[in-house]
Amino acid sequence: MIPISWYLIFSAALFCIGLYGVLSRKNSVAILMGVELMLNSASINLLAFWHYYSQIRQAPQMDSQVFVIVVFAVAAAETAVGLALIISAYRKRQSVVANDLSELKG
Amino acid sequence: MTSLQIIFLVVAALTLVSACLVVMTRRIMHAALWLVLSLMGVAMVYATLQSGFFAVVQVLVYIGAISTLIIFAVMMTRNVMEDVGPQSNRGWGLALVGSAVLFGGICGVLLTWNGMQTALIEIPAVNGENIQMLGLSLVDPMGFLIPFEVASVLLLAAMVAAIFLTGDIKRSRS
Amino acid sequence: MTFWSDPDGFLANWLIHLLAGIGIPAGIAQAIGYALGAAVLSTGALLFVLFLIWLERKMIGRVQDRLGPNRLGPWGIFQSIADMLKIFTKEYITPDGADKVPYNLSPILTVGAVIMVWAVVPLAITVYGVDLNVGLLYIIAVGSLGEMGILMAGWGSNNKYALLGAFRAAAQLISYEVPMVLSLLIPVMLSGSLNMNKIVQHQDIWYVLFAPLAAFIFFITSIAEVGRAPFDLTEAESELVAGFNIEYSGLKFGMFYVADFLHSFTISLLVSVVFLGGWRGPGAEASPLLGFVYLILKTSLVNFIIIIERASLPRFRIDQMMDFTWKVLTPVMLILLVATALLEKTMAMAGLVPWMRSGILFILNIVLLFVADTVVRGHLARRPRPDVRGKERPVARPENYFSQPGSGV
Q: How far apart are CA A2 and CA B49, in angstroms?
């Protein structure tokens, strides 16, 4: 009943909000939050297209659902490693501001 | 306007508003709590797509594990970033313009697609929301066995990496 | 359809006819019916907690050679109602600098997360809230909402002890979720479904006979999820004052209290639904009310064990608690899961009858329990005991800075 355009525009908006968060935030934990929003919008897109193609082809297609599962796994792995990096950088330098971690800057 | 459409609009508005607050609010802990609300909204959107399984997994993985981890990290590092003062860097205006342009671009591309106005009608479930088919295709060698195994290896590697990075007890002892 | 064969459907039909009589269409009437059902179920559960609190206090009193509550009504049965009225009249104190919204939202979230579990539990053959096909996963997911409530309480209170308590509680909940989910996978594997109704209907033989070790581990881990003795580190009075809920008063504290007792009853319900056959028993298919009585009897038995165990076991230390889940429960559960999967598949291919399958799996579980017990005991015996006798202890001496009057502490 819901047109697929609603889902696609909704997920595009969510993606852009997440992107803005990633680009503009100072705190690296907040940057990770933006990445979570972007990953979620990708999952919405995948599920919307799963629904669309299952409807068009008259049979459930499993590809996008498997993709969503992989996205979940990647999101969990990314958060675990990302937060571990942030915590260990915080221990060494007492800072979580992404701009402060710039020794490699030329 | 069917009731499903009204539910979708309300949930989508709630999700987008809380997502905006995630990226804009000053207090980082509030941002984490708004993130929980917005992930909850995404779970409800999944439920409207006939993917109840993914809605539940979303609550389990994103709210139960990822948000909890983020809140832990916020609490552990909150002394350094005091919540006063600007939380965004100098280029935030550029970031805003870039995101808006990207959104416009995506919408522009989407509108040229023919299938845009297709209404998503209910798919006849073969066996209870197709979970059984999903599970079988995940362990089928002709299906998605290898991506599934790769995802599990990735999770294992992430676990080892996280333990190695944060647990520095062994190294300090030696 | 009569009331005795299908009480749920009968009442729903009656309600829809009644509302149609005053001109309400069937769709809205059905929604009203669902809302009423949810309200009745959750209110009934919350009122039942009053009885549970009285029961627990009475039983723990008997264990400790006291009488327990005995003033109000016969055997003091109205004591909880008096307590409830007292808690209604208390003042709400919001601590200075509290984060208002999380602070006020967390009691609601904590109670809500417990009550939401009841939506998918089949109370009798036709009586259940929703026939959700991912019911078991839903229960675990809802548990993580309660965890969020605890974190919000700890954060919102603006109190170090509350925050420490919330950290501890969240760490405990996350750690014990791992073996809990693994132990729930065994009934899922045996019944081939995540649906609670199907799991109950598959239990011609109770799953506790297929997997006693899994049932035992589920029981232990769900006690840890509730945070009861011996896992009540979250509210260790001597270390953390009272855990994440110290800053709450009045009805807000009452909600945490009620959620605690209701949660312990809910896990008893889950143990009896998933492992003890749920509503099944002689004659339960024909009359749902009899099935409901069976379910309540089984649940009360499990709850009785929880209460007795709370009265008799000492509290774990924090490192012991973490060691127990990560080094004992999780490996045992992983081995049991793989072994059960292999054996069950082999036996199903060999065409064994269910009784023999359950017997073989029962033996496997007992052997595994014995092996794990031997290994852990051997490990504990080999580990050198820390010598604590010679160490100097911090004591309140007169020359100590902190014990001098006017030191400002």
A: 9
C-alpha gyration radius of chain A? 18
Q: Do B158 and A78 touch (CB under 8 A)?
A: yes
- The 10s digit of each residue's pLDDT in B107-139 is 999 888 887 777 877 777 665 556 778 888 888
Asked whether the beta carbons of A43 and B124 are under 8 A apart, the reply is no
Q: How many residues does chain A have?
A: 106
Q: Do B36 and C148 touch (CB under 8 A)?
A: yes
Task: Judge contact between B99 and A23, C-beta under 8 A.
Answer: yes
Q: What are phi and psi of B62, to 5 degrees?
A: -75, -45
Burial class (CB in 10 A: 0-12, 13-18, 19+), A86: buried
Beta carbons within 10 angstroms of residue A74's beta carbon: 15
| Element housing C105 (H / E) | helix C100-117
Q: Which of residues 93-132 of C touch B (CB under 8 A)?
A: 99, 102, 132
HSE at residue C192, side-chain half, CA atoms within 13 A, is 8
Quickly tell me which residue has 């479904």 as its tokens.
C193
Q: How many CA atoms lie within 13 A of C111 on its CB side?
A: 17
Tell whether C181 lies on the interface with B, counting CB pairs under 8 A: no
| 3 state DSSP class of C299 | helix
Q: What is the pLDDT of residue A44?
A: 92
CA separation for the pair B96, A21 (Å, rounded): 9
3-state secondary structure (DSSP) of residue B157: helix
Cα distances (Å, whole numbers) of residue C63 to C66, C84, C310: 7, 25, 10
Q: Which residues numbered 71-110 in B keep a CB inside 8 Å of some CB on A?
A: 72-74, 76-77, 80-81, 86-89, 91-92, 94-96, 98-100, 102-103, 106-107, 110
- DSSP letters spanning C43-79: HHHHHHHHHHHHHHHHHHHHHTTS--S-SSSGGGTTH
The answer to whether A1 and A27 have CB atoms below 8 angstroms apart is: no
Q: With beta carbons less than 8 A apart as the criterion, state whether B134 and B126 touch.
A: no
- Sorted by sequence, the CB contacts under 8 Å of residue C28 that are 6+ apart come out as C19
Residue C183: pLDDT band (50, 70, 90) is very high
Q: Rounded to an integer, what distance in angstroms lies between the CA atom of residue A95 and that of residue A26?
A: 11
Query: Which chain A positions have a beta carbon within 8 Å of B89's beta carbon?
Result: 24-26, 99
Show the tokens assigned to A90: 């915080």
Identify which of B56, B57, B63 has the shortest CB distance to residue C148: B63
| C388: its two tokens | 């604590």
Contact of C14 with C36, CB cutoff 8 Å: no
B159 interface with C at CB cutoff 8 Å: no
Chains C and B touch (3+ CB pairs under 8 A): yes
* CA–CA gap between residue C31 and residue C38 (Å, rounded): 11
Kindly tell me the number of DSSP H helices and DSSP E strands found in chain C: 15, 0
Q: For B39-43, B44-48, C3-7, C204-208, which range has the lowest pLDDT when averaged over its residues?
A: C3-7
In DSSP terms, A2 is beta-bridged to B120
Whether residues B118 and A4 touch (CB distance < 8 A) is answered with yes
| Confidence (pLDDT) at C409 | 46
Of A68, A46, A5, A41, which is closest to residue B42 (Cα–Cα)? A41
Note the pLDDT tens digit of each residue in B16-72. 999 999 988 888 888 889 999 999 999 999 988 888 889 999 998 898 889 988 988
Residue C227, SS3 per DSSP: coil
Q: What is the pLDDT of residues C149-176, one digit of tens each?
A: 888 888 888 888 888 888 888 888 888 9
